[in-house]
Amino acid sequence: MDKVAYAKSAKWYDIVIEPLVRTLRVTGLTMLPPRQGMSVLDIGCGTGSHLDLYQKAGCKTVGIDLSPTMLNVARKKLDALTLGDASRIPFPDESFDLVTATLIFHEMPAALRSPVIGEAKRVVKKSGRLFITDYHPRTTRSLEGWYSKAFITCIEFLAGGEHYRNYRDFMANAGLAPLITENGLLVDKQMTVYGGTIGLYLLCANHTE
User: What is the maximum span of the chain, computed from C-alpha positions, in angstroms?
Assistant: First the structure.
């Protein structure tokens, strides 16, 4: 969604969408449990619900998002927030122990996806991790998989023409897998949920390239 669309959705996002994605956020915490003092950057932080989990665990959190309206909601939960473009993250190299991005890449034009991952790789420490979650193109042949795929397709269609076209392009181009490879990232852990419709990737940045 663009800034205008997010301006309209910010007020109801935590009520309607957040309960649907909270399972993804909690699952992410089990893949890499937060520790006291860990520095975490959330790209496309939205209303701040994801970062709030890390803040409550004692992490030092920073969120970046393009939508002023979303950040206004996030400020009720978080202090360190930045209005900005994730393809030009305003932080030095190797600044964070963990960089997260949840369900943002399918929304972007294809030309932006790799630069955003490249920036995430740049700002994570050598010992750090990237945690990226987005739609997975290979659905299992289960009832849960087919139901989830139908629900996701409906949600993405209702989000608007440009959003839906970007989603279709993301899925047609195999989702996150080629972006991970292109940017020289190494998979530490991965899993799929909701019948294989959403993939969660814990990644290492290869800074030796």
Answer: 46
pLDDT digits (tens, 9 = 90+) for 99-139: 999 999 999 999 999 999 999 999 999 999 999 999 999 87
Domains present along the chain, CATH in parentheses: 3-205 (3.40.50.150)
Q: Which secondary structure element, helix H or strand E, spans residue 119, and what is its range?
A: helix 110-123
Question: Which tokens hold the place of 34?
Answer: 């937060």
- Cα–Cα distance between 43 and 104 in angstroms, integer? 8
Inter-helix orientation angle 110-123/161-172, to 10°: 70
CA 73 to chain centre: 18
pLDDT digits (tens, 9 = 90+) for 11-60: 545 555 666 677 788 888 999 999 999 999 999 998 888 899 999 999 99
Note the pTM of the prediction, 2 decimals. Answer: 0.88
Pairing of strands 198-205, 96-102: unpaired
Could you tell me which residues come within 8 angstroms of residue 110 by beta carbon, excluding any fewer than 6 positions away?
A: 166, 169, 170, 173
What is the distance of C-alpha 3 from the center of its chain? 17
Burial class of residue 26 (count of CB atoms within 10 Å of its CB; 0-12, 13-18, 19+): exposed
Do residues 161 and 209 lie in contact, with contact meaning Cβ atoms separated by under 8 Å? Answer: no
Nearest-CA neighbor of 24 among 170, 159, 191, 204?
Answer: 191
d(CA 133, CA 148): 16
